[in-house]
Design brief:
This protein is mainly alpha-helical and 360 residues long. The chain has one domain: ABC transporter involved in vitamin B12 uptake, BtuC. The strands form 2 sheets. It has a two-stranded antiparallel sheet. A two-stranded antiparallel sheet has the order 3-4. Strand 3 and strand 4 form a beta hairpin. Helix 5 packs antiparallel against helix 8. The chain is globular. The protein starts with a strand and ends with a helix.
Length: 360
Amino acid sequence: MLMKENNQIDYGYSSLTIRNRFFSFRLPIKILTVSLILVILGVCAATAAATLGDFPITLSQVIQAIAGVGEEFHVLIVREWRLPVAIAAVVFGALLGLGGAIFQSLTRNPLGSPDIIGFDAGSYTAVVLLMLVIGTTQYWVIAAGAIVGGAITAFVVYILSWRNGVQGFRLIVVGIGVSAMLTSINSYLITRADVDDAMMVGFWSAGSINRVTWGSLTPSVAISVAIFGLALVFARSLHHMEMGDDTALTHGFKVSAARLVLIVVGVATTALVTAAAGPIGFVALAAPQLARRITNSPGVSLLSSAAMGAALLAIAHLLSLIIATFYRPIPVGLITVSIGGCYMIWLLIQEARRYYGRIA
């Protein structure tokens, strides 16, 4: 890091600086470029997915239908049925990538993901209780319940892992234990439910964005804007907390308040997706680390993680439709779990090697 003649700091890489009265941040051009490419890739994958289904249509017909100038039947299929799903693939993937980046930064551990820590399971437990015990399927009730369930789970995990502060590894271990307990509760409730209700909840647990409609997508997008806005405001606090609470305090950041807001934002990302599409696993785990490796950044970037999540979920959705064309429909959640499980095994091996390497 060098000082220029005009007293500006040279960080050794090109960056874009944005300042206003509420926040200011510096964004490397490389991260911005990679994020833009990933978003374009996700949009292209989602658009290609709109050509597949029970009534296959061409890419040009999809584009014409989106513009509202195609055949009436094609416009109906694309704009009413497939366009909400395509938008959901990009938006929900970005939410999951953002949530994973927040918790991996807070825990300073690549395993610190909402679905690993157990927040995803807490949101799903709330949905199961609402569907099977209370008997409601209204979107707003399920959405609120998913957020509350995730928040309660986050509070329980945070309290149980507290010991003169919260260490990232302890938070993850406690979260895995709480997640296992919640999974057992969910299994018990499903086995005691009627067959039709159990099948409905079981299909929900697989994670599928094909059920998304404009009615559930519109409020989800509106809430997503607020989530991304809060994440943007507290991004600087998050980066300083990665260096330790003491360092963040010396830089004038209110660590406790910022951590609380960031936890709520991180829980809201996975809860919102769970409410609309069911639990979609491992996107939040893989997206931040893949983005970090592509951008070669020293820490987890919220922007590139969100962009990578959008690309991953859109590609997984396209892959699920391609498989359905030749075999049978497969929920996108099963695709992400299958791919993410392999990634998690590799990540665990890497973390074990790094841990025992430090001991040696």
